[in-house]
Structure formats: structure tokens, C-alpha cells
């Protein structure tokens, strides 16, 4: 009550913010006559002068009004478009590191040019992130005319570029690309060996288009680069053959809300019988147990043509938010292999993680981040809590006059789709264009079949037919057009009304089902009513829709029965619409908690990742890697002698033997200790350091590359093993709850212990190998250099375009004599250890 009164008196936070920008907008407009008087060459010269002023210390905020005025005039001359004042407000909002919520058709692509040019003048690079390659290429080419007119360079990062092409694109003033490409480039850079191979610069300023799609919808999908692990593909097919023997409720239960499957006692007994094992939950059978549960999920949670499609012998994921196919993306944890076994296509070998990061943590590394979308307000709390981003609703240039009708609720799917087909036919007969939104490929094809029977011509836009997407969407506003589309998120193409359509009521949006996220529904609605155009929207629901069935359809069914409603007769009531919206809010809150929990777990990994990657960068860029070797040797000697020093002369003979064994193992020195005192410690340290000095004298300049090689090789090998260990820890940590322990705290504690062990292992393995390496005088210099060729890496994450099956390979090993000590540090000869199979 008090909040409402206060808001009426002083205005909402959003209103106060917008009011505060008025003087800045006025200042930009005041520059317009002055800028208009400049020639094209004079405009470019002024932009270059402003860039120099920034380099000399002038702040970007100081030059904002003049720069925005230059961009606006440049747009008029190069694109024939002039920014509206509300677009100036959107540009200021983005520059200040906030999210600009702008309705569909308000020109977000043009708005971004304002802060992009301003921040590009810093010389540190600006990234504009889109949801797919098509939009990245389209926007870079389209807006590139403006940037080039102003004397700025533009690069585009899309799938298929080699490293020199990527370096050139990142070194441009402005770089367009997809979220996946930016994220994978970051990970790949942290697998390189030489600083000259790095493609990305420091992460300065990014604007994320469709920010809710990338930072909310994709937040639960980490980007992963992986290599092939041990092949267990035959086991998936074997387990899959047993799944039809199990019966729902008797052998297993399904929780659709949580999307989980659990075996009952009868089911466990049945699987033990067919697998011929005594105890499915024995630690020795944990792999079998995992395969059984994943196979059950594949059969009873994941649906063909809803969650995935089978195309050309491959299981391809369908993005639930956009309806797009995602070639190259694979479900993790063996689920994708289980789906391949279910669909009887080739089961690909499992992969081991080599590098991974979530979008949440990647985008939080930018010095400044802004975002644009038509629908962010429903997730404002999450943006603030997770990313420290404020959502500002930007006013429309023209008043919104679209009519949003209450939902129609039917008893069954059959009644609902019959009503939809009837109403679409009626609207088509009047000549009013209709855009029908469906939540799955299956539903879009069902409705398409009904419309064909009714003789209604239409276009279908789904994951099976997205090649002509832009053309189909662009025509959707013409008289008499009927377009059926899976979720319209991130389409990026305006639906412009054809001639005479405004008189017919504009574009009508017909939703066949409510999505569990209100944003997705709002994105569909937002395709109509752009720039003050007329339009309308209505959603059709059935009590057996997934959302209704899982969240409160029983009460509605009771109301319908009491009212004695006939078959085919709907409820149309705003109270019903509010009840459905409340159900959506509950689902959104639940999903937010899942994402928040994921981030809390990933923050543990993120802190570790930052330490490892910053260490890697140091090793790559240093001109003196031998300093790291010296420091590591000193640390090892200190640790070996620490227990002896703590005993203060009261140590046992066994303690001296242990220290001697460690000295031989880690430093390859046979030195019998008698006292364990300072003089012996100094002797060991001097001998170890002189060994490296001898190696350096023999190798000459090549010694630095040898040291760098072993430092990075050891770090990468052990980091890969650490990622696997953390995966295993994460998988089983939930069981700690049964022991009255907080799983998150246990994960942090044990993760820290594993990380300490990792740091020690990296150091020890490096020195163990370097202490045993021998240089052959005839060895060419390249032998200890990393060769960056390609093979065997796989990428998974969000939509990755045509992701490669093969990609940059890990480094090759240096050539080592077969009788030389193995560089892995085992103490064996190379031919009897790592070189045995070579």
C-alpha cells in the first residue's frame, strides 16, 4: 500500500531513470545542426579526433552527446534511417551497462550502433552478440555500412573461420558474432601454447542481443570442449534392449515436473536379474546403474519431434525456446548416447571434458555488459541478482494499440485444435494475416494437417524447415497469409504489414499453448502491433496441455463440469488467465532456483578456472619460464624438509628415508640424508638447481621452450583429470544430504581439497619430468614446440551451428629417445611406458 502511494508521488524507478535522461537527449539533439553541416570527410575526421581524445584520457561520457549525434547523422547518410529520441534513450541505457527492454519493431539493431560506436572509440574492442550466425552476418553487413562510413572497422565471428581470420575479426573496432563462438574462442585460447596464437583481446564491452534467450534460457547449458573418452557405446545398446521389459509404476516412476525417472524395488530386482548382477547399487555397478537411468529418461522423458528429431541418422536437439535444430550440440552425461540407442542410430563414443564454462560466468568477465530484448521485465530479479544488470523498459515510439484477448480454455486437445482450425479458416477468409505459435514440431505438423483438410493455404516454419525462415517471416504480415511457427524467440526479422492489412485489424497472433515461461508467450505476442500498427492476440488452451496438466487443471475441470459446459465450448475468463499466469510464475521461480543453484556450484569451478587460466596466460606470455621452474623446485625442497624441520632433530630414521625417496622421485637425485638439517637441504636445492643449469647450458635458447612445454603440458593434463574428478564429485554430492550435511558446502570443501591436490600435482609432474629430460645435440629446435593441428575435439553447448566433429588438436609430444626416461615422470624408460604403443 505504502509502496503504491510512494510510486504515485515520486514515480517508479524506471520512470525516474527515463526522466533523468532527458537533458542528455536534449544535448544530443542540440548537436544535430552542427553535425549536419559537416561533409562526409569532416564527419570521419571528427570521429578520428574523438578517438584520439579518448586515448589521451577524455571520458566516454564526456563525448557521448556529440558521438551519438555523429552516429545518427551517419545513419541518415549511409542507411537512410534516423534514430528516434526513444532510440537515443535505448542507446544511453546500453552504454551505462543496463538491459534495454524494447518492444518488437522498435529498431534494436539500429539502437545498438550508438553505444557500439561510442565504446569502440576506446580502442579496446566492442562485441555485439547475437543468437545465430545468420543474424551476426546480416547485422554486421547491414550496420557495417554505418561503421565504415564513420571510419571504423567491423569483424564477424561465425562458424568455420580459421585462427588468422578470427584474430583479424577480434582486432576490428567492432565484432559481431554468436554467444557460442565467443565462448568457445575463450576456451580455445586457454588451450593454446603461444601468445601469438590467441585470437581474443581482453573482454571489454559486450552488448547481448536477445539477452534473455542467452543469459536466462541458455544459462543451464555450459559450453564444453571435449575429447574422446573410453568407448562404452555397446553398453548403451545392450541396456536399451532391456528397457521395454520394464513397466511404468511397477518397475519405475516418472516425475514430469522434475523430469526425472526412479527405479522401484521391483525394477531394481528386474534389472539385477537381466544384467546378472547381485546388487545394482553396489559401487562396482555404478556405471550400469547410470546407464539404466539414462535409458529410462531417453524413453519416458524425452520425446521425438518435441525434444529432438532424427535426421540423416543423427539425433539432433530441438531448442525448446526457439524451435531451432542445434547441430553439433549433444546432451551430456551419456543421455545423448541413450537417445541414439533408443532410435537405433550409430551411438557415438562418450567424451571427456577438456574445457568448460557457463554463459553466466563467461559474460560476467566483461568489464561492461549491456543487453537488448523485447521481454526482460519478467526476469528482472534474476538479471539483477546474477549479473548485476538493471532492466529499463524503453517507451515505444508510437503507442501500443494491439488487443490481447483473454485465453480460451477447452477440455481436450482435440476440441482445442478443432477450434483453432475453425478460427484460422474464418480469419483467413476475411483476409487478416495470422501467425500461429506452437510449442513443438509435432503440434505444428498436427495443425498443418488440419488446415490442409480445411483447404487453408499456409506456411510451416519449424526446425525441419528453417532455411527459408527470413523470407517466410517477412511475408507473414501480408493479406490472407497463414504462418505456423514454433517459438518465435530470436527470429530477428520484422513482420511488416502488407497493403490494406491495417484496415483488417493487423496481424493476429494465435498461441496454441502457454509456455512455462511468460517471456516466450510475450515474444510471440510481440510479433504483432509494431510501431503503432493494429493487431490482436489470443491463446488457446486445453486442460491436458502440459502446463495445465502439471499445474492446477483439476480446479478448472471442476468449474467446467459444474457449469455443465458442452464439448467444444470454452471458458473465456480473465480470472482463468490470471490463474494460468500464476502457474507460470511458479515455474519461472522454480527454474530460477535451478539456475541459481547451478551458478553456486559453477562458481566453485569458476574460481578454480580463473586461477588455472591466469597461470596459463602467465606461462604463455612470460619471456622467462625458467623462473617458474626455479620457484617450483624451491617449493618442493621446502615441503620435503618441512616435517624434518618441525621435528627439530627428533625425527626417526624412517622420516629420513621418506624424504630421500621423495628427493629421488621428484628431483631424480640419489642423496642419502643423515641429519635432515639446513646444510643437507641447501645441498639438495643446489644440486637440483645446478641440474637445471646444466640442462639450460646444453639446450641453449631452446631451454626456455622446453621449460614452457613441460609447464603447460603438465598443467593441461592434470586440469583435464581435475575436471573429470569434479564431475564425479558433483554427480554424487547430493547424497551428502542424507548424512545431514549441506551438499553445496561439502562440494566447496572437497572441491578446494581437490584443487590443492591439482596445484601440487602440476608442480610435481613438471619438475619430475624436467629433472629427467635429456637433450640430444642433433635434435631440431621444433621438437619441443607445440604443433597446433586439428583433430578429435568436440564442442557442445547452446546452438553451435554446424559444429565440427573435428577441431583443434591438443599439442604433439616432443620426440624422445626410446631409452630416455619417460617425461610423464614414472621413472621408467620411454619405450616401456608412454612409448610402448608407438
Automatic annotation (TrEMBL):
Basic and acidic residues composition-biased segments: 802-818
Residues annotated to bind ATP: 87, 105-109, 494
Cellular component annotations (GO), alphabetically ordered: cell envelope Sec protein transport complex; cytosol; plasma membrane
PROSITE patterns reported in the protein's UniProt record: HELICASE_ATP_BIND_1 (PS51192), HELICASE_CTER (PS51194), SECA (PS01312), SECA_MOTOR_DEAD (PS51196)
Protein family: Belongs to the SecA family.
Quaternary assembly: Monomer and homodimer. Part of the essential Sec protein translocation apparatus which comprises SecA, SecYEG and auxiliary proteins SecDF. Other proteins may also be involved.
Protein name: Protein translocase subunit SecA
Cited SUPFAM superfamilies: Helical scaffold and wing domains of SecA (SSF81886), P-loop containing nucleoside triphosphate hydrolases (SSF52540), Pre-protein crosslinking domain of SecA (SSF81767)
Reactions performed catalytically: ATP + H2O + cellular proteinSide 1 = ADP + phosphate + cellular proteinSide 2
HAMAP family xref list: SecA
Job of this protein: Part of the Sec protein translocase complex. Interacts with the SecYEG preprotein conducting channel. Has a central role in coupling the hydrolysis of ATP to the transfer of proteins into and across the cell membrane, serving as an ATP-driven molecular motor driving the stepwise translocation of polypeptide chains across the membrane.
Region spans: Disordered: 780-828
EC class (word): translocase
Gene3D superfamilies linked: Helical scaffold and wing domains of SecA (1.10.3060.10), P-loop containing nucleotide triphosphate hydrolases (3.40.50.300), SecA, preprotein cross-linking domain (3.90.1440.10)
Domain Helicase C-terminal: 404-588
Stretches assigned to the Helicase ATP-binding domain: 89-247
Organism: Solidesulfovibrio fructosivorans JJ]
Cofactor(s) the record lists: Zn(2+)
UniProt xrefs under Pfam families: P-loop_SecA, SEC-C, SecA_DEAD, SecA_PP_bind, SecA_SW
Amino acid at each position: 500500500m505504502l509502496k503504491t502511494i510512494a510510486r504515485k508521488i515520486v514515480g517508479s524507478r524506471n520512470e525516474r531513470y527515463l526522466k533523468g535522461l532527458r537533458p542528455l537527449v536534449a544535448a544530443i539533439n542540440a548537436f544535430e545542426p552542427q553535425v549536419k553541416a559537416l561533409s562526409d570527410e569532416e564527419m570521419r575526421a571528427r570521429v578520428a579526433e574523438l578517438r584520439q581524445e579518448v586515448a589521451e584520457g577524455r571520458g566516454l561520457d564526456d563525448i557521448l552527446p556529440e558521438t551519438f549525434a555523429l552516429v545518427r547523422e551517419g545513419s541518415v547518410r549511409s542507411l537512410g534511417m534516423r534514430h528516434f529520441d526513444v532510440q537515443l534513450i535505448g542507446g544511453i541505457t546500453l552504454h551505462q551497462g543496463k538491459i534495454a527492454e524494447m518492444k518488437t519493431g522498435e529498431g534494436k539493431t539500429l539502437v545498438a550502433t550508438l553505444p557500439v560506436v561510442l565504446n569502440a572509440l576506446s580502442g579496446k574492442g566492442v562485441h555485439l552478440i547475437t543468437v545465430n550466425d545468420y543474424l551476426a552476418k546480416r547485422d554486421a553487413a547491414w550496420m557495417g555500412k554505418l561503421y565504415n562510413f564513420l571510419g571504423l572497422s567491423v569483424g564477424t565471428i561465425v562458424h568455420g573461420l580459421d585462427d588468422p581470420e578470427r584474430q583479424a575479426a577480434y582486432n576490428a573496432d567492432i565484432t559481431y558474432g554468436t554467444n557460442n563462438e565467443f565462448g568457445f574462442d575463450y576456451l580455445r585460447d586457454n588451450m593454446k601454447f603461444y601468445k601469438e596464437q590467441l585470437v581474443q583481446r581482453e573482454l571489454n564491452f559486450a552488448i547481448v542481443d536477445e539477452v534473455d534467450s542467452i543469459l536466462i534460457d541458455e544459462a543451464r547449458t555450459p559450453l564444453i570442449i571435449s575429447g574422446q573418452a573410453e568407448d562404452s557405446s555397446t553398453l548403451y545398446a545392450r541396456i536399451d534392449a532391456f528397457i521395454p521389459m520394464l513397466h511404468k509404476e511397477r518397475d519405475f516412476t516418472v516425475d514430469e515436473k522434475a523430469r526425472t525417472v526412479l527405479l522401484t524395488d521391483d525394477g531394481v530386482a528386474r534389472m539385477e536379474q537381466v544384467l546378472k548382477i547381485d546388487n545394482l547399487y553396489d559401487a562396482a555397478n555404478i556405471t550400469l546403474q547410470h546407464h539404466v537411468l539414462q535409458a529410462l529418461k531417453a524413453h519416458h522423458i524425452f520425446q521425438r519431434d518435441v525434444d529432438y528429431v532424427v535426421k540423416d541418422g543423427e539425433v539432433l536437439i530441438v531448442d525448446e525456446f526457439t524451435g531451432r535444430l542445434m547441430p553439433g550440440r549433444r546432451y551430456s552425461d551419456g543421455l545423448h548416447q541413450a537417445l541414439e540407442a533408443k532410435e537405433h542410430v550409430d551411438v557415438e563414443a562418450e567424451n571427456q571434458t577438456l574445457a568448460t564454462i557457463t554463459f553466466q560466468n563467461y559474460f560476467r568477465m566483461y568489464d561492461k555488459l549491456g543487453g537488448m530484448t523485447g521481454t526482460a521485465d519478467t526476469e528482472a530479479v534474476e538479471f539483477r541478482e546474477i549479473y548485476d544488470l538493471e532492466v529499463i523498459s524503453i517507451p515505444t515510439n508510437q503507442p501500443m494499440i494491439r488487443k490481447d484477448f483473454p485465453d480460451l480454455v477447452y477440455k481436450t486437445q482435440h476440441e482445442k485444435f478443432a477450434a483453432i482450425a475453425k478460427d484460422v479458416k474464418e480469419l483467413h477468409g476475411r483476409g487478416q494475416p495470422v501467425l500461429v505459435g506452437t510449442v513443438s514440431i509435432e503440434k505444428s505438423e498436427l495443425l498443418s494437417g488440419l488446415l490442409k483438410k480445411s483447404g487453408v493455404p499456409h506456411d510451416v516454419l519449424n526446425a525441419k524447415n528453417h532455411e527459408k525462415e527470413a523470407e517466410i517471416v517477412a511475408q507473414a504480415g501480408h493479406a490472407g497469409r497463414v504462418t505456423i511457427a514454433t517459438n518465435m524467440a530470436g527470429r530477428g526479422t520484422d513482420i511488416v504489414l502488407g497493403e490494406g492489412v491495417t484496415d483488417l485489424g493487423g496481424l493476429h497472433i494465435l498461441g496454441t499453448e502457454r509456455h512455462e515461461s511468460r517471456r516466450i508467450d510475450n515474444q510471440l505476442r510481440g510479433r504483432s502491433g509494431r510501431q503503432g500498427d493494429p493487431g490482436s492476440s489470443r491463446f488457446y488452451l486445453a486442460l491436458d496441455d502440459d502446463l495445465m496438466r502439471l499445474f492446477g487443471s483439476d480446479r478448472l475441470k471442476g468449474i467446467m463440469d459444474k457449469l455443465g459446459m458442452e464439448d467444444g465450448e470454452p471458458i473465456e475468463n480473465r480470472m482463468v488467465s490470471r490463474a494460468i499466469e500464476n502457474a507460470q510464475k511458479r515455474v519461472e521461480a522454480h527454474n530460477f532456483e535451478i539456475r541459481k543453484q547451478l551458478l553456486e556450484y559453477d562458481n566453485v569451478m569458476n574460481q578454480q578456472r580463473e586461477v588455472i587460466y591466469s597461470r596459463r596466460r602467465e606461462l604463455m606470455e612470460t619471456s622467462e619460464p625458467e623462473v617458474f621452474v626455479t620457484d617450483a623446485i624451491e617449493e618442493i625442497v621446502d615441503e620435503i624438509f618441512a616435517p624434518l624441520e618441525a621435528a627439530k632433530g627428533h625425527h626417526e630414521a624412517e622420516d629420513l628415508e621418506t624424504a630421500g625417496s621423495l628427493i629421488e622421485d621428484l628431483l631424480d637425485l640419489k642423496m642419502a640424508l643423515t641429519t635432515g638439517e639446513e646444510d643437507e637441504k641447501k645441498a639438495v636445492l643446489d644440486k637440483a638447481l645446478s641440474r637445471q643449469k646444466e640442462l639450460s647450458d646444453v639446450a641453449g635458447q631452446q631451454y626456455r621452450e622446453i621449460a614452457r612445454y613441460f609447464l603447460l603440458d603438465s598443467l593441461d593434463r592434470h586440469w583435464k583429470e581435475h575436471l573429470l574428478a569434479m564431475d564425479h564429485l558433483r554427480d554424487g554430492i547430493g547424497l551428502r544430504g542424507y548424512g545431514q550435511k549441506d551438499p553445496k558446502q561439502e562440494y566447496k570443501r572437497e572441491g578446494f581439497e581437490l584443487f590443492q591436490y591439482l596445484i601440487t600435482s602440476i608442480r610435481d609432474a613438471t619438475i619430475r619430468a624436467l629433472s629427467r629430460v635429456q637433450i640430444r645435440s642433433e635434435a631440431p629446435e621444433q621438437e619441443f614446440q607445440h604443433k597446433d593441428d586439428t583433430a578429435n575435439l568436440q564442442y557442445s553447448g547452446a546452438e553451435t551451428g554446424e559444429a565440427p566433429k573435428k577441431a583443434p588438436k591438443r599439442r604433439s609430444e616432443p620426440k624422445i629417445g626410446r631409452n630416455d626416461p619417460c617425461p610423464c615422470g614414472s621413472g621408467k624408460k620411454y619405450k616401456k611406458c608412454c612409448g610402448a604403443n608407438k
